[in-house]
Every structure is written in C-alpha cells, then in structure tokens.
Specification:
The structure is a single chain. The chain is α+β, with helices and mostly antiparallel strands. It is built from 12 helices and 20 strands. A hairpin with a 5-residue loop joins strand 18 (465-470) and strand 19. Helix 6 packs parallel to helix 8 (290-314) and helix 9 runs antiparallel to helix 10. The longest helix is centred in the C-terminal third of the chain and has 50 residues, at 344-393. The radius of gyration is 38 Å and the shape is elongated.
C-alpha cells in the first residue's frame, strides 16, 4: 500500500509539474561557443581572439582529459527577467567547471585543473543561483573554464546543456520527463515477478525464465536511465550509467533472442542463435553513441528474430505470423529514439513487446496445463481400470474378528463401510452388517482402489454404485444397486463426480 501511494504521489507531482511548466518562460540556451583549448594555456582566462581559439557548437567539443575555456552569449528575454521565481544558470556535462557571468565569478562545480590529480570532480548536472541584477535582459556573456580528467569514456557529446532559466534542483528537470515511465516500469516489474514465480514453480522447464529475465533487465535499464532524475551524481558516474544502460539493453536483447530461437528455431536453434548474436555484435560495434548501441542491442535481436520467425511462419509454424509481425513492428517503432538517448517512448515500446510475449506465454502455459491435466486424468483412469481388473481377478480380503474367531471377508462382497464410534460397520452383500474394531481411516488403508471415500463416515465400493444425486446445497447421495443410499459430503462431491466420470 505504501509503494502504491508513493507511485500515485509521484504521478500527481508530475502532472502538477507539467501544468506549472506551461507558464514558465523559455530558457535562454547556448548554441555557438568560442572554444580555446591550447595545451598548457588553460590556467589563465584567454581573450578568446587567440589563434588557438575557434567557434563551434556547444555540444561538439570535448574537455575529455584536458582543460579548456569556452565563451558563449545567452540572450535572456524580458519575460524571464520579470519571472516571479529566482533564476539559475544550468550547466550539464561531464566536467568540473568554473563559471563567469558578465565578468563576475558566480560559482564552481568541483575544480577544473590541468592534471587529473589536481582536479576535483564536479556534478553531472548543476545549477548556479543568480542574484537579482546578475543577469540582464538581452545578451549575457558566459565564460566557463572546464576539465574532464576523471571520465573513462570519450563521449561524442559530453556537454548537454548551458542555459539560464527558473532555478530548480537539476535532477527535477530530468525526473519530470521520466515520470511517465512508472507505467512501463510497473508492467515490466509485475511481468518479471509473476512469470518468474511461475517459472520457478515449474522447475522442470528453466526456459520459462527467459521472458522474466528480459523484463527484469529492462527494469534495470530503466532504473539506470532514470537515476539521473533521482540523484545529483558526480560526472564520472555518468560513464558507469551509460555502460549499465547498454549492458541491460544487451541482456534484454539476448534473452529475447534466445526465447524466440527456442520457440521457433526447430532443428537449427544453435546456428540461428550464433548468427543472431554475431550480427547484433557487429551492428552494435559500428555505432558511435551509447544511446545508439543500447538501442541496437535490443533492436538487432528483435529484427533478426522477426525475420527468423517470419520464415517459420512461411513454413507453417503455428502462431508464428503474429510473433513475426510484432517483432518486426517493434524493431521499426523504436527507430525514432536513435537520435535521443532512450526516452520514455522507448520503454513503452519495450513494455508493449514483452506484454505481448507474456500474453503468448500465458496462453501457452494454460494450454500445457490443460494438456497435463488431461494426461494426468487419463493416467488416473487407466490406473483405476487396472485396479478394477485386478480386484475382479483376485479380490482382496478384509480381516474381521467376531465372537472370538477371525474371518476373512472378500472385499468384492462389501457394499459400503460406515463409521460407528470405535467400530466400523461392514455392509456385506447377502449377509447384512458386520462390526470390525478400529477406525474407518485404518480400514480404508486395507481396501482396494475400487473403494471411494464419499463422506467422513462412509466408504463405498464403486462396483455397487448406481447413480449420483446432487442437492442444491452442493452435497448429495449415492444410489446403490442394492437399494441403499449413502450420503456424499459437499467437500468431497467434486472428487466423487470426477471419479465416476
């Protein structure tokens, strides 16, 4: 209940945030910058007209393993200046930084340096509070000294955002975009737990764990992705986050491929799996960005699996066509997110794909369950027939002590047995009743399988049953060929009806 309330609170908070954002003026964002990155000259602020300085776009340069300076101009609107809330300068990237606004130092994020040992790492996403009067309407000059010595992956676009806007905690900006991901998160998590529990219960078929693991890895990928909106982390963790996203996507793709090959691979499962893995690895290795790698790690197996299942459908494989269509449609549908780093739309598509597969797996499980129940019923019926045949050929005998002597009574002559305190009444064909010391449960162990427990006080010989009568309250009675009537309890009625089918 607590988790449910927390999710609802987040969703309501997200709706309120979106509604409030509609009234927020546009951010003043950086576009082009002047970059100065001459080795050995990074400690002193340049004039930005040196020969080693050049103009570029803010995201098309990298401070990876070096110290650089940039200068840009932000054109701040009158609406932003007059906005009722405080303003902040937002800086997002894999850097430690020192920031100047209109000639004044407004803050540092870590401490940039020429060497890694001198650098203090900064946060990936940071906002510098702007006092009244620090920013003006119109052009504002931003100068930033930055370094990125502690990252271990040279990204193509390490700087994500330079802008002035209403002040807020930096992860909130990312979280507002990720709030809708609670829906696919719930679908994936519930699917992983539910079908994982089924797979563990049916221990004889470990292949049923493939889809739950695929969903679980997708949940891991989503958590790694959303972590940027949950914590304000140091920029080196961003590389770890990107690697986790890619590895989780690859693990999801691998489970998906193995599941599809196992379901529709026929006699060529091994070669088909190897081909799919090799092809996916080649395609992923050719992509430069981590977003593209993570996307292709799942898109590749889906597309290759769709083609393979399409061939199985052409060969007449049952229900293969729908699988092929969904896999190919999925591989095409997630293509638009290649240029954006795995937005929420991507996770909706993954959840939809796995939901389809969960439904198909549930149908398969139900069919297998029914087939197993039918097979078990046939086996029980056969066992009963064999027991009846054996009993007719060699009837069992029940030992009864009466008047100081021991008598063996043939079980095929006993019509039914009735509990009577510390004794059991044996109703015998053509003879009447005989008392036997002991409980009905003890006697039941000595009786052959032709006898059926129909009530806590009655055991009946199936050979003497004529008809079953069922009452409105769920209980009933057995009509015997001798004219006797034996009660059937409501609890045992389903078992009796099944045995008499």
């Amino acid at each position: 209940m607590m988790v449910f309330r927390l999710l609802i609170s987040f969703l309501l908070w997200g709706v309120m945030s979106v509604s409030l954002q509609a009234e927020v003026p546009d951010y003043a964002r950086a576009e082009s910058v002047i970059l100065c990155e001459e080795e050995g000259r990074g400690l002193v602020m340049p004039s930005f007209d040196e020969a080693y300085c050049r103009e570029t776009t803010y995201y098309k340069f990298s401070p990876f393993k070096k110290l650089v300076w940039i200068k840009t101009t932000l054109d701040v609107s009158d609406e932003l200046i007059d906005y009722k809330e405080p303003l902040g300068l937002f800086l997002s990237g894999k850097i430690a930084s020192k920031v100047y606004l209109n000639g004044d130092l407004i803050g540092t994020n870590g401490s940039p340096a020429m060497q890694a040992e001198d650098e203090i790492v900064g946060k990936m996403d940071v906002v510098f509070y702007l006092r009244t009067g620090q920013v003006k309407a119109g052009p504002n000059e931003i100068i930033i000294q930055m370094s990125g010595h502690h990252g271990f992956i040279p990204l193509a676009y390490p700087i994500h955002f330079i802008a002035v806007g209403p002040y807020q905690y930096p992860p909130n900006i990312a979280l507002q975009g990720y709030l809708p991901s609670f829906i696919p998160f719930g679908i994936l998590l519930v699917g992983a737990l539910y079908f994982g529990a089924i797979a563990l219960y049916r221990q004889q078929d470990r292949r049923l764990l493939l889809l739950p693991f695929a969903a679980l890895f997708a949940v891991g990928q989503l958590i790694a992705e959303v972590s940027r909106g949950l914590i304000q982390y140091d920029y080196p963790y961003h590389d770890v986050r990107l690697v986790l996203v890619m590895l989780f996507a690859a693990a999801t793709g691998l489970c998906l491929l193995v599941h599809v090959v196992d379901r529709y691979g026929n006699k060529h499962k091994g070669p088909a799996l190897i081909f799919g893995l090799v092809a996916t690895i080649i395609v992923v290795s050719m992509e430069d960005t981590f977003g593209g790698k993570a996307l292709l790690a799942l898109q590749g197996p889906a597309f290759i699996g769709g083609l393979g299942v399409g061939l199985a459908a052409r060969a007449g494989k049952e229900k293969a066509l729908s699988y092929a269509v969904v896999l190919l449609a999925f591989s095409v549908a997630i293509q638009p997110v290649l240029d954006a780093f795995l937005d929420v739309y991507y996770f909706y598509m993954v959840a939809a794909l796995l939901l389809f597969m969960f439904v198909q797996q549930a149908r398969t499980n139900e069919m297998e369950k029914k087939a197993l129940a039918a097979e078990r019923a046939r086996a029980e019926r056969l066992q009963q027939i064999l027991a009846d045949t054996k009993e007719r050929q060699t009837p069992s005998a029940v030992k009864v002590s009466e008047a100081g002597k021991v008598e063996m009574i043939s079980a095929d002559k006993i019509i039914y047995c009735k509990s009577a305190a510390d004794y059991v009444e044996l109703h015998i064909e053509g003879r009447g009743s005989v008392l036997r010391a002991g409980s009905l449960s003890e006697l039941e162990k000595d009786l052959p399988q032709t006898f059926l427990r129909v009530h806590r006080s009655y055991v009946v010989n199936g050979e003497f049953i004529k008809a079953l009568k069922r009452e409105a309250n769920g209980s009933g009675s057995l009509q015997l060929i001798t004219g006797d009537e034996v009660p059937v309890s409501r609890r045992i009625m389903p078992t009796v009806r099944k045995a008499l089918v």
